[in-house]
Sequence to fold (195 residues):
Amino acid sequence: MKYQTLLTSLLVLSGLAAGYLDVSTIVPIAAAQAEITPTAEPVEAAEPEASDETAEAEAAETEAAETEAAETAQPKATPTDRNTVIQSQKSIEWIPLARINPAQPVTIELNNTSNDELEYLITTHTNFRTLAPGQKASIIVTDFPAFVNINAKRSVGVKYLMRVQGNKIMVDLKLTTGQGDTTLNIHEQGAIYLY
Fold:
């Protein structure tokens, strides 16, 4: 059991370091981990026989408790599952990194801090444009949702380091050995997501 906990912790930490997971992913993993139960059924001690009335009352209580438990039960993982799937009855909601006012234009300033050429576009409005090493570019967005894709021209990841002041989004772009980011998404309600 402690080895599974250690393995899960290592997988979560490596997922965070590589950018595959964010903090909102860890909570359901930790919750599922806390609910891990052994597969072997415990042996119950024999109880003295009770009268018919007592037995009927206990049976009714047990049935009511089992019905309530079945209605509120969460999926549980067992330590013997090799390919445990963590499920949740409620979907994980994305948490925005920041917000802007979508009723006003938004300025996105891109700053290529890498030594490689990058390419960027607003997926619904423009073709790819090039951003040379050390170069900056500004994009003004008035239609939401908006999806800004920024990629390296060669096969390496690009990490987006974002700051927001009012309706101005500043993004420093650097290369990374991990997967990196691919999209800056501004939701129609003004929420900003990176993925």
Summary: The chain has two domains: 2-72, 98-194. Residues 2-72 form one domain.
